[in-house]
Amino acid sequence: MAVELLRQLFTVDQYYKMFDAGVFTGNERVELIRGEIIKMSPMGIRHSACVKRLNQLFFLRLAQTITVGIQDSVRLNNTSEPQPDISLLQRRPDFYETQQPQPENVFLLIEVSDTTIKYDREIKVPLYAEVSIQQSAIS
């Protein structure tokens, strides 16, 4: 007899309630992908250096016209809120203080992949495309 495993999927609102309740500590790196809470890989020194270089490049060239997000959440829909390494967003006077960026606010999302390239290519990039984010990159 086959045993069927039950999976509990979460909404973005439930995900935030878990943070508020202290289920996750401030140091835990997790993101919500298709209703599943995914523990993110630790960042190595090369990964961090690449993110810093990209941040400097975009900030120096585009700071007057866009907002550069660094490992900030982007709410794609009710069940996915990934944390791309770099996000180039429409400028807003409140710097997204009142809501997370949504797909319509995104110009470009970048995932820096040294250990997660297969996951990023097969899961995250298609997810970005599903919500009409036309520009995503993996470095």
Description of the structure:
The chain has 139 residues and is of the alpha+beta class. It has a domain at 42-138: tt1808, chain A (Alpha-Beta Complex). It has three helices and six strands, in the order αββαβββαβ. Strands 3-4-5-6 form a four-stranded mixed beta sheet, sandwiched between helices. It has a two-stranded antiparallel sheet with strand order 1-2.
Record keyword descriptors for this entry.
single chain; 139 residues; alpha+beta; tt1808, chain A; 4-stranded mixed β-sheet; two-stranded antiparallel sheet; 3 helices; 6 strands; globular
**CATH level-two architecture of the domain at 42-138:** Alpha-Beta Complex
Order of strands side by side in the largest beta sheet?
3-4-5-6
Radius of gyration, whole Å: 16 Å
> How much helicity do the residues have?
25-40%
Could you describe the largest sheet, including whether it forms a barrel? 4 strands, mixed
CATH fold call of the domain at 42-138: tt1808, chain A
CATH superfamily name of the domain at 42-138? Answer: tt1808, chain A
In whole angstroms, the N-to-C terminal distance is: 45 Å
Q: What's the level 1 CATH class of the domain at 42-138?
A: Alpha Beta
Structural class category: alpha+beta
**Poorly predicted parts:** none
Secondary-structure element order, N to C: HEEHEEEHE
> Overall 3D geometry?
globular
Q: Beta-sheet strand percentage?
A: 15-25%
Mean pLDDT over the full residue set: 91
Number of DSSP helical runs: 3
Count the E strands: 6
Please render the helix and strand layout as text.
Layout: H1 12-20, E1 30-33, E2 36-39, H2 45-62, E3 66-70, E4 86-90, E5 106-111, H3 117-130, E6 136-138
Parallel strand pairs: 5-6
Antiparallel strand pairs: 1-2, 3-4, 4-5
